[in-house]
């Protein structure tokens, strides 16, 4: 089986073209059996455990399993199909049960304890020491100290939570794919930019539907809501979008996540209680920068108090504008993006569609690669590969100034059916030193959902999409530029969840700099640079309605935190009531009663951000202050770029992120730069 199954090849890149659903189950069974055999052997050595004979072989077991499952998990996200979905779900159950059992293996726990308490521990390098300390923490968080029924129940909950989260994400994908607005009358296209209309035509043609098809995928939905002159059609799109995977809307009851939310929250609280935590949020914060729920709550409520007055003022301005200029007496939620775009054009002289022709994806990539070359001394170039999962995908290679390979990444840029929404970076291969002394080069998946090419033109990005590309590439650099040689703490592995966004959010800042825009932006037809007046208008619009955007993020973060910090809050009505209460405190826009945003909130119910959505804002304080050094010393200042490379990107999860920040910035972080960048200063 091993010789023929592409999932069992541990060298080189995954052979995506060859991987089929029927490969998954036999390969997983073989890997799990091999892993268990090695674990059984190592259990007998726990009483004489040391790094070389005990911890290192366990790292090898983890590595092989990760290398096997990574391409399966990735394909499930970007090439969904019934047969793959089925074997992925079955495999996930087996894997989760395996990890749950491993986390409660007392012999292995005692082996790690022996290493941590030995005199030899002090002689281990810092990466190995961190691996040991993290392993001991994770054993405790996995219930290794539990006894009898409590031990069994914790393990069962862990398995059930993984299955429920996977189903939640599948429901969101199906609900997003399952609805479309088909138009055949050209007058219904009024207000829509040509690029949006062309994409809708191409989408309709691809499924044999006459006219134009608009979907709930971001490249279609967002511009429709911003530009369509037809209020009734905007209302249809809005209702379908906010009711995805719920008991409301055009597909009410189909793919409904309402019951899953109740189960997920209840099981999370039960698992935390079994370990002696007051609530799941307290359990989740054990491995974060933030030390308590109270600290996070204070951070978020302080931001809310600062941002809400700005949001109220911005909403009042929008309402007055819509009334005076268009005679609209009361704005509905589906009106806000539409009139906001018109207000932005009026007050800032900026229309996001005006810059789209200046951001063809190939040119943006060239500019991005030049930015990181100047900052970190690395070169990015396209690599060849015939083993790609879709024709849209490209493989790239990163070299440092000496020509040493630092990493590779797959870029899958465009939205399409059967592909999970959003944008993310994921680990394909981690960096480590292997048995023969060589370094295993890290490989990343960079996945986005940009507007696809239309006709013979390349993909034309909005500036928001440019920001997204820089953001995900920042995550990728964190993974690929690490110099840590233990994969468990290399790159983003082992980095606290509320610090992992620092490199990604930092890199976004360069997208606003005129010098960088001159490198990134070239007109798709003429090659002309972005005109200086358009650059000025783009920059002036940076903080347009920043208060409204901020309170929206705070609504998400506070809902998530309180949902997981309230043990008794497990009923469906209680969950909705909590969200309504948070909205009354924070939001200034009243959501309609059928809004079921939570039913598609994949970040916290399927994406690992449970009790952690605050991390985006928390890390943005760090990133804004870190960028302050570049503002002070020069956006391409060599010492600043080298310092961030060496103090943050290369050190992975080995050291405390606050210590890394202080080493780079020379002091602890402050909130002033963040508030200034957000426009939340009087």
Description:
- This protein is of the alpha+beta class.
- It folds into four domains: 6-145, Endopeptidase. Chain P, domain 1 (Glutathione S-transferase Yfyf (Class Pi), Chain A, domain 2, Up-down Bundle), CATH 1.20.1050.40; 165-170 and 257-331 and 543-682, Neurolysin, domain 3 (Orthogonal Bundle); 179-242, no CATH class; 357-540, Neurolysin, domain 3 (Orthogonal Bundle).
- The protein is 56% helix and 7% strand.
- The protein is built from 26 helices and nine strands.
- The strands form three sheets. A five-stranded mixed β-sheet has the order 3-4-5-9-6, with helices on both faces. A two-stranded antiparallel ribbon has the order 1-2.
- Helix 3 (82-103) packs antiparallel against helix 6 and helix 16 packs across helix 17.
- The longest helix is centred in the middle third of the chain and has 34 residues, at 293-326.
- The mean pLDDT is 96.
User: Biggest sheet, in brief?
Assistant: 5 strands, mixed
| SS content category | alpha+beta
Number of domains: 4
| Count of individual beta strands | 9
Overall 3D form: globular
Poorly predicted parts: none
Distance between the termini: 67 Å
CATH architecture of the largest domain: Orthogonal Bundle
* Share of helix, binned: 55-70%
How large is the radius of gyration? Answer: 25 Å
Per CATH, the superfamily of the largest domain is Neurolysin, domain 3
CATH topology description of the largest domain: Neurolysin, domain 3
């Amino acid at each position: 089986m091993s010789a023929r199954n592409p999932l069992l090849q541990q060298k080189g890149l995954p052979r995506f073209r060859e991987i089929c659903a029927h490969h998954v189950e036999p390969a997983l069974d073989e890997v799990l059996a091999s892993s268990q055999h090695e674990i059984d052997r190592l259990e007998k050595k726990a009483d004489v455990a040391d790094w070389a004979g005990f911890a290192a072989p366990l790292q090898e077991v983890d590595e092989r399993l990760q290398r096997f499952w990574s391409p399966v998990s990735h394909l499930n996200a970007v090439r969904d199909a019934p047969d793959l979905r089925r074997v992925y779900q079955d495999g996930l159950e087996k894997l989760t049960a395996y990890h749950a059992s491993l986390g409660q293996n007392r012999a292995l726990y005692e082996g790690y304890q022996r290493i941590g308490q030995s005199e030899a521990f002090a002689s281990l390098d810092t990466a190995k020491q961190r691996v040991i300390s993290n392993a001991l923490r994770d054993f405790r968080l996995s219930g290794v100290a539990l006894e009898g029924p409590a031990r069994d129940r914790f393990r069962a909950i862990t398995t059930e939570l993984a299955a429920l989260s996977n189903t939640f994400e599948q429901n969101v994908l199906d609900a997003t794919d399952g609805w479309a607005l088909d138009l055949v009358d050209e007058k219904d296209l009024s207000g829509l930019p040509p690029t949006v209309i062309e994409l809708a035509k191409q989408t309709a043609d691809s499924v044999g539907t006459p006219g134009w098809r608009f979907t709930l995928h971001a490249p279609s939905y967002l511009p429709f809501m911003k530009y369509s002159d037809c209020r009734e059609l905007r209302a249809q799109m809005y209702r379908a979008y906010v009711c995805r995977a719920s008991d409301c809307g055009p597909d009410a009851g189909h793919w409904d996540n309402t019951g899953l939310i109740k189960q997920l929250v209840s099981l999370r609280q039960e698992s935390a209680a079994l370990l002696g935590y007051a609530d799941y949020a307290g359990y989740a914060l054990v491995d974060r920068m933030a030390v308590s729920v109270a600290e996070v709550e204070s951070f978020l409520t302080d931001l809310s108090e600062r941002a809400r007055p700005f949001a109220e003022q911005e909403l009042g301005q929008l309402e007055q504008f819509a009334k005076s200029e268009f005679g609209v007496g009361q704005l509905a939620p589906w009106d806000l993006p539409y009139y906001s775009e018109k207000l932005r054009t009026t007050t800032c002289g900026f229309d996001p569609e005006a810059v789209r022709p200046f951001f063809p994806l190939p040119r943006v990539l060239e500019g991005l690669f030049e930015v990181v070359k100047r900052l970190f001394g690395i070169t990015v170039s396209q690599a060849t590969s015939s083993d790609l999962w879709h024709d849209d995908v490209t493989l790239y290679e990163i070299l440092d100034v000496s020509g040493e390979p630092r990493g590779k990444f797959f870029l899958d840029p465009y939205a399409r059916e059967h592909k999970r929404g959003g944008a993310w970076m994921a680990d394909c291969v981690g960096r480590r030193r292997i048995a023969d002394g060589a370094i295993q080069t890290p490989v990343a998946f960079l996945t986005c959902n940009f507007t696809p090419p239309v006709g013979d033109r390349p993909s034309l990005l909005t500036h928001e999409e440019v920001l997204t590309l820089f953001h995900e590439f920042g995550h990728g650099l964190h993974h690929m530029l690490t110099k840590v040689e233990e994969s468990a703490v290399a790159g983003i592995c082992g980095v606290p969840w509320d610090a992992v966004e620092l490199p990604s959010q930092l890199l976004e800042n360069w997208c606003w700099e005129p010098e960088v825009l001159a490198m990134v932006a070239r007109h798709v037809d003429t090659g002309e640079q972005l005109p200086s007046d358009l650059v000025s208008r783009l920059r002036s619009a940076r903080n347009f309605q920043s208060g409204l955007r901020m309170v929206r993020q705070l609504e998400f973060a506070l809902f998530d935190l309180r949902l997981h910090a309230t043990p008794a809050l497990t009923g469906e009505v209680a969950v909705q009531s909590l969200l309504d209460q948070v909205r009354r405190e924070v939001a200034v826009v009243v959501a309609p009663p059928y809004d079921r945003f939570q039913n598609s909130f994949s970040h916290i119910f399927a994406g690992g951000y449970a009790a952690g959505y605050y991390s985006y804002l928390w890390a943005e304080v760090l990133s804004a202050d870190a960028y302050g050094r570049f503002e002070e010393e020069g956006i391409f200042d060599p010492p600043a770029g080298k310092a961030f490379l060496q103090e943050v990107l290369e050190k992975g999860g080995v050291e405390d992120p606050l210590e890394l920040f202080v080493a780079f910035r020379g002091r602890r972080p402050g909130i002033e730069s963040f508030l200034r960048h957000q426009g939340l200063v009087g």
